[in-house]
Amino acid sequence: MTRNDRAASRPVNRVPAIVLVVLALALAACSDPTATGGDGGPAGGDGGGGEAVTMARATWDTGWFQAEVYRQLLGELGYEVSDPADATRDANGFYPALARGEFDLWANGWSPLHEPYLEGELFTGATYDTAITFVGQQVADGARQGYLVDAATADELGLTSMSDLADASVAETFDDDGDGLADLLGCNDGWGCNLTISEHLEQLDWGANVEQVVGDYPDLFEQAIADVEAGEPTLFYTWTPNWTVAELVPGEDVVWLESPSLPDVDQTEVEGLEGCAGDADPCDLGWQINDIQVAANTDFLDEHPDVRALLEEVQIPLDDIAAQNDEMYQAAEYTTEDLEAAAETWISDNRDAVDSWLEAARS
Model-level pTM greater than 0.85? Predict the structure, then answer.
């Protein structure tokens, strides 16, 4: 079974979607309908008393493990939790539904990338605060994004920054379709990374010589793997946590390129980033570093202080997420049962911390 065939055997296709869009009220009304279900988490605790909690999860499968961990923890707190797999949403469908109270939470918030969803817009142009709160610090400064190039081409041309592609002769090295522009393997149409890359192409010094190749991200990354293995010049986008950096390892197969950032974007530097071109430290990726947090309906949190307390406590190490992501990618088939087992194992391995989180929530 090939990796592309493997996608069809999974509960939901692997699709990353990091959306940076402020939706108008009209778009909110057209978002995906909700879906709930599942058997809930393990029974236990004396918090929720069997009360229902409705969870969603993101379409990018690098966040599914965290969603399952939170589902099981809320189950231990005593809540009957819907299966996030039955409500897999991209960000522009999820956040308006969360604000309307159709969902209670998900574990896949990126801050500040998703902060535009905290504010809605009326037809009059007036804005209002939505009923959404980011809570806790699941992974502080763990969500990193940027551009990478195969190490061989970086060494050959002395590439250290995307700004090097402002030289048309350098950009042509990555031209696959003969139009003279570098082909950057990017993201799915309309998703946040796609939109931000498009902004980079329009506004940054290197953008005029580059075009984004748009498609299904797993397929694009399979192309990147094949090109690097064949010794072809390869330019692509990725983020962490993600199985991609285990398949094309920064510092070995590929290197991160620094980049200027868009105006008014800060916190783009990462200290000690393995595989930054030219051994730059800190490495300025040109993309704002994000915290991964739970996004929850504010009214729900106000009505359930024990849930808020639990969410404020939970932390999942980036390395643990990355290890599960790569295990999922490597598997010929990765089922819902495998995902549940991975979360159960992680909770068991971190039982002391988990018990302290639950104690804080119950008190």
Answer: no
